Amino acid sequence: MHTPASVRARFPGVCGTSTALLDHAGGSPLPACVIDAATQYMRRCFVQTGADYDLSKQAAAVVKAAHEFAATFLNAGADQRVVLGPSTTALAHLLANAVADAFAKGDLPKERDEIVVCSAGHEANVWPWARLADRGFTIRWWHATPDPTRTMRLDVAALRALVGPRTCIVAFPQVSNILGDVWDARALCEAARAAGARSVVDGVAYAPHRLPDVEAIGCDWYLYSTYKVNGPHMAVMAGRLDAFSPLTGPNHPFIARDDLPYKFELGGVSHEGAAMIAATYEHFAWLADASPSTPFDRTVLERAFREIESIEAPLQRRLLEGLQRVDGIRLIGPWADDASRVCTVSFVIEGRSSKETVLGLNARGLGCRFGHFYSRRLVEQVGLDPADGVIRVSLSHANDQTDVDRVVAALVG
Questions:
Q1: Residue 45 has what pLDDT?
Q2: Does residue 82 lie within any of the structural domains?
Q3: Which of 81, 90, 228, 253 lies 20 to 30 Å (CA to CA) from residue 401?
Q4: CB proximity list for 148: less than 8 A, separation 6 or greater
């Protein structure tokens, strides 16, 4: 296991500040190798792809490497295609609009006119689907079930009661960015498939802490944000070819429908961002004590994420144990400190404004936030004012024990 000091040394932004960064669910720090990859690309071959001269070929190789890394990261097989985009929200809108277009043209069955949307997720995978009520779909809301030990949970039985012969899409998160609870994506995807529906999984809050596996969970589409996994401000969508086949991406009409991912990558992708995505493998290889050679090796990523879990688990435990000493605390999520949750921890304190509490923490050099974090519907469901929302402390493998102790001491004091 790497020492906390050696891990932190990988992140110039973390080393260069006295602020304890406790907002990793909003965006992760960049390893030096990822920062350097962008600079090197822009110095070397900042040209368009698709030509036959060497610099253009090099640019194309960089973009290809990003797709290949993302496919390895997600364990996407030959029957999958990986699309890069500017954000998970943007990619979800592209996908939802393509589904609505296919429905209107008759490329999807007219009898499948219902979309089941989980209200407990980030709005990125909620509103793109909910807004299709204006395009002929009936939206069936799937609310998380109250649970005395976990605040809320996604219930497979509740989903089975909602899906049926009219269901087209089921959209839900693998982890709530408020609750931190890991939900059984495989069982939920199986319930959707049993009804003949496609599943769209938001993996944004899962991917920084656990290595996604789209083959294992059996989803039709999976999305995550690379900037929350030590990469650039971009996102990835992986989808099955049979799920993509009735859809027409929004890129130019003379581009063939089956020209994937190009048909969904409007105007191409950020080349320097692609270089950064591929370079995250170097960081994970370091965590796994492996050589950052290509082709990308899934087993290296598995070892890296075991290392990440071994770093984060004791920090999560220390944080949750410390928060139990805070008078009037109400945890929004499970108190369990095991692998059933990730170290994104949300709470409110009786009689104290979340906003004022966080501003006080910020003044003491503690970088956390308050609010609804774009899971406004869930915050409302648990009875909170979304304007004040929750206090969220979110950790990653770039944190150490001192960061946790500082925030706990400030809250207890």
A1: 85
A2: yes
A3: 228
A4: none
pTM: predicted TM-score of the whole model, two decimal places: 0.97
* In contact, 175 and 121? CB cutoff 8 Å: no
**Rounded distance, CA 283 to CA 399, Å?**
16
The answer to whether residues 316 and 270 belong to one domain is no
The structure tokens listed for 114 are 């219902």
Q: Which of 358, 343, 367 is nearest to 389 (CA)?
A: 358
Domain presence at residue 6: no
307 domain residue, yes or no = no
Q: Which two tokens mark 282?
A: 């170097």
Write down which residue in 259, 280, 301 finishes a domain.
280
Q: Under 8 Å CB-to-CB from 298, ≥6 apart: which residues?
A: 72, 75
Q: Is residue 66 part of a domain?
A: yes
259 and 377 inside one domain = no
Q: pLDDT under 70 in the chain at which residues?
A: none
Side chain identity at 25, as an amino acid letter?
A: A
Q: How many domains does the chain have?
A: 2
Give the pLDDT of residue 165. Answer: 98
At residue 413, the pLDDT reads: 83
152 is written with which tokens?
């809320």
Q: CA quadruple 173, 175, 180, 184: dihedral positive or negative? A: positive
Residues 227 and 112 in one domain: yes
Q: Are 342 and 393 in contact (CB under 8 A)?
A: no
Helices 298-323 and 401-412, axial angle in degrees (round to 10)? 20
E strands present in 290-338:
329-331
Q: What domain range is 71 assigned to?
A: 38-280
Q: What phi, psi does 88 have (nearest 5°)?
A: -65, -40
Q: What is the pLDDT of residues 207-259, one digit of tens each?
A: 999 999 999 999 999 999 999 999 999 999 999 999 999 999 999 999 999 99
Residue 391 — φ and ψ, nearest 5°?
A: -90, 130
